[in-house]
Amino acid sequence: MDTRLCSRVGGLSCPSKIKIALWKFINQFVPTKLCLSNKRIANDTHSPRCHVANEDVSHVLRHCAFARNVWLAFHYGCPSNDVRMSFKDWLSWMFDRHPVRKRLEIAVILWALWNARNTLYHEGVIQGARDVVTFVHGYCSEL
Ligand SMILES: [Zn+2]
Question: Is 77 a domain residue?
Answer without folding.
Answer: yes
